[in-house]
Structure formats: structure tokens, C-alpha cells
């Protein structure tokens, strides 16, 4: 089972590029972030025409997550538990069954800037709720993947210029500590389980020629329960997708599971 996570930065603005990517790459499952569309306005037809089942959790003009799957999507849940008043569309999960069932959780973690401030407080509170859900996924003792745009630079080697991000909410010590707390529960960070060292990025700002200078950061991650990690055969960043007209500022991250 090939699973891709991709912050598309707006389904309406990037639809041709996203469809071209799906045609070329053909993931079994695609977890999308920043769809920036309410559910009823999401352009379902071109995805369904390509054989994908589709579930969305959208919001007008901001945020929004979706799961596309060539397999049926079962037990779909929207919204990260722990705050019934949180109206931001940042979490969706469903079970996908190929040769075996895998729980797919798609997330778009808050940016948190400016920090300190209420947006950073919301980020940390959201990460605490993520930790609670992560504990539940581990307790189930089943394959599960938490995939998406985490808005977290885990280590300095995950930025081309770490000094430029030192005071940013994506790299502050409390952000990194919250991310590590989730990892230390027993999750595997898929990419670092396969690839070590600097120079691997998933996001480049549109401004300042960041792409041309490879001035990127790695903020798109896949965290695997032990049962999912045992099934992983590969993980990679698909940097070539940044080419073409109106590309996203992110590129997809992939894992292959023997499932």
C-alpha cells in the first residue's frame, strides 16, 4: 500500500497540478492538507473519476483535510478529540483495508506564529490533544499512520538555515519537545527511520527564490505505530512535484507499507 501526504495549498487553485500528480504517481491513499474548501464545494468528481473514494473535512478559505483512497474508507472521524469548541478543520481519520487494515490519520497542525501569543498557545494545546489521540492509537495495537503537515521542524538538520527559524513557532524548544513526546510514546518517524542527515526538505517558501536555492525545511511527517512500522518498506520525499504551473509550496511525502 503506497500512502502519500501532500499539503496542496488550495484544491481550487492547484486542481490541475494535483490531478496531474495523481495521474503520474497513482498513490493507493493520499492524505491532503490545506484543501481550503468547504465539503460541499470540494470538486469530488475528478477524483472519483480516477477511482478514488473521498472523505473531506473542510473549512471556507482556510485549513481543511481530506483522504483519498482506492480502497473503501471506513469508520471516518472528523476533528481531533479533546476540544468540542475547536471549529478548525485540521484532523480526519479512517480505516483503509488492503491486504490488512491500516488506520489513516490526516492532520494539519497549527502554525503557531506569532509566538508567544494566542496562536502559539493554540498550537501547543492542539499538540497535547494529538498526544492523547496518539496514546489511544498505540493502545489499539493496530497499524496506524499519522500523516500530514505538522508545522514542526524536528531538528536543526531539518532546515537549510536553522538560524533563520530559531525564533519561529515551527522550531521553538516547546514545539520540538511536544513533537518528541509523541514520538517517545513509541512511534516511528518514517523518513528518519530510512534516511539520515541534512538536506532533505518538504517545504520551500514562494518568496526569495527559496526553491532555486534549496532553502527549505522538513515539516511534513509520517508517524507510525509499531505495527505500521513493521510493515514499512520505504519512505521518500517526492521533490520533483514542485515543478510545473502553480505548484504547492510543499511536496509529497510517501511511505510504502506491506499491507
Automatic annotation (TrEMBL):
Names of the cofactor(s): Mg(2+)
Family label: Belongs to the DNA repair enzymes AP/ExoA family.
Residue span, Endonuclease/exonuclease/phosphatase domain: 4-250
Keywords of the record: Hydrolase, Magnesium, Metal-binding
NCBIfam families registered for this protein in UniProt: exoDNase_III, xth
Protein name according to UniProt: Exodeoxyribonuclease III
Gene3D superfamilies, sorted: Endonuclease/exonuclease/phosphatase
Species in which this protein is naturally found: Rhodovulum viride
Amino acid at each position: 500500500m503506497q500512502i502519500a501526504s501532500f499539503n496542496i495549498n488550495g484544491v481550487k487553485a492547484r486542481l490541475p497540478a494535483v490531478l496531474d500528480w495523481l495521474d503520474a504517481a497513482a498513490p493507493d491513499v493520499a492524505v491532503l492538507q490545506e484543501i481550503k474548501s468547504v465539503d460541499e464545494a470540494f470538486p469530488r468528481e475528478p477524483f472519483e473519476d480516477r477511482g478514488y473514494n473521498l472523505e473531506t473535512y473542510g473549512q471556507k478559505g482556510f485549513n481543511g483535510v481530506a483522504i483519498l483512497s482506492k480502497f473503501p474508507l471506513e469508520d471516518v472521524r472528523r476533528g481531533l478529540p479533546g476540544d468540542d469548541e475547536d471549529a478548525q478543520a485540521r484532523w480526519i481519520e479512517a480505516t483503509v483495508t488492503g491486504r490488512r487494515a491500516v488506520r489513516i490519520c490526516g492532520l494539519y497542525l497549527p502554525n503557531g506564529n506569532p509566538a508567544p501569543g494566542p496562536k502559539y498557545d493554540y498550537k501547543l494545546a492542539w499538540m497535547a490533544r494529538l498526544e492523547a489521540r496518539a496514546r489511544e492509537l498505540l493502545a489499539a495495537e493496530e497499524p496506524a499512520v499519522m500523516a500530514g503537515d505538522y508545522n514542526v521542524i524536528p531538528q536543526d538538520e531539518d532546515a537549510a538555515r536553522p538560524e533563520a527559524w530559531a525564533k519561529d513557532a515551527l522550531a521553538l524548544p516547546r514545539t520540538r519537545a511536544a513533537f518528541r513526546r509523541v514520538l517517545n510514546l513509541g512511534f516511528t518517524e518514517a523518513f528518519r527511520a530510512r534516511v539520515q542527515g541534512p538536506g532533505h526538505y518538504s517545504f520551500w517558501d514562494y518568496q526569495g527564490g527559496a526553491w532555486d536555492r534549496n532553502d527549505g525545511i522538513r515539516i511534513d511527517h509520517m508517524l507510525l505505530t509499531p505495527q505500521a512500522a513493521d510493515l514499512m518498506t520505504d519512505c521518500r520525499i517526492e521533490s520533483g512535484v514542485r515543478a510545473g504551473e502553480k505548484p504547492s509550496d510543499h511536496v509529497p511525502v510517501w511511505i510504502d507499507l506491506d499491507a
